[in-house]
Give the backbone structure.
Amino acid sequence: MAKMTLGVNIDHVAVLREARRVNDPDILQALYTACQAGADQITIHLREDRRHIQDSDVKNIMASSKLPVNLECSINKEILNIVSTIKPHRATLVPEKREEITTEGGLDVFKYEEEIRFAIEQLHDSLIPVSLFVDPTIEAMDKSKELGAEMVELHTGRFANLWAMLHSNLPHSNHSIKELELPRYELSERLEESLLSIKEAATHANKIGLEVAAGHGLNYHNVHEMMKIEEIIELNIGQSIIARSVFSGLSDAVKEMKELTTRHD
């Protein structure tokens, strides 16, 4: 069984810092702690609006990290030029809208085919491997391969939302997802369908030569479902780890997630 790599996304440390616009908490301290606690990779997202990670953060992290850095970014030309100069260990192309709270859905590899192809070529010219953050469909896997990506990261947001509406108190909170306020049997059916789509997409991607990662909305309660899919070799998890660290400390939060995402033969 393939080893699972845990990428720890530290964006939310920067979210807290930017809330007061002071250099506390220190993003580099988060990097060092995640590294010491057993993370396999550091993941950050340099957004066009710079709402959390800043250009200086990326440079400092690249200069200081002993772990590979997975830099998420849009297909905006200005951002691509920065990424090409910084040369992270991998670039993951993601969709981005200024008004969104977090990344919503996968990158539309059909609507933005030419822009994505150009972005991949530019990154490859700088010797940067590319992953595409896409919805788990067979068609998206084929298109990602055609465009020249080495890897796909399957967007697990729909799965995570269904899981939360079925297995947590989310329906009874102010953050209930209105379109998913459905009978439990229907939520259960949709959850199974979502898991099947992730499994089928991962299997197909692996078959056509793409490496497979997954991420978005994964947490301590639902991540075991991803561990069942052998073709997935990497998980990128951020918000739930940083949220857990408020109570347990970042080191313990990373260690706990690392244990949950370790495959034992």
